[in-house]
Amino acid sequence: xxxxxxxxxxxxxxxxxQLNEDPKRIEDDLKYIKEWLSKQPHIMARTDxxxxxxxxxxxxxxxxxxxEKLDYFYTFRSTLGTYFNxxxxxxxxxxxxxxxxxxxxxxxxxDLGRKVLLLxxxxxxxxxxxxxxxxxxxxxxxxxMIMKDDRFITTGVVTVLDLSGxxxxxxxxxxxxxxxxxxxxxxxGYPIRPKAIxxxxxxxxxxxxxxxxxxxxxxxxxxxxxxxxxxxxxxxxNVPQRILPxxxxxxxxxxxxxxxxxxKEMESMKEWFQEDEKFKSNEAKRPGKPRTYEDLFGVEGxxxxxxxD
Length: 309
Known about the structure:
globular, alpha/beta
């Protein structure tokens, strides 16, 4: 029998109807993915059932998509060392980011049963902390959720993106290269399904630029992006007020309590994160052509390295 957590009745139903999960097939599907991984000379992968089923669920049990996503997942780990090396939960910068509570999964789901993440991107001091370190901790938190939170994978994710406190210092760190790395890694490498992104406390200039981008967006994505500005009642129509932290008018405890909880949870995974660093791709061993940084992200971002050589 596969070594996986049993889903609640609610999540079982969602997995069955939305993700094509068939309990009778799980064992065979896991076996298939493990056999495929064992034949990939370039991938050093985790093979525990709980980890692999997250990818099967995130890919709606398409075996081809699961293989592709796992391959990308490990390729990004070798090409984006900035985010995936030295994953020490007790490193001073990581501790600082966890204390601040930049990314906080909320305790209760929304009315559709979906996991809700609160992201406070303006809370850190850009003179002290680099945005790449913030994303590094965010990816660690996402790995925690893959391993520990079935709702995160099964129901999809709703994000509340609080832009209060965002300065020019924050904005200048968000270079096109960083955005491309993080977006590509999240979308192509992680088995998560974004269901909605809610922007609140947006700076005055944000809306004009955002609406321009939105006008060129596909319909599916348009319907999932919501800009509320300072209008919290508008947010509450999309994310129930009661599930938010006290500071946002909700009942989910204070931001400090949530930050302390998640810091402790992340610290409990210290050994797991240390061990996890060894799982990555070795492109020199990939059959055929190795994947390079340029293949994944284009040539921009590698000029500095070229000029140094």
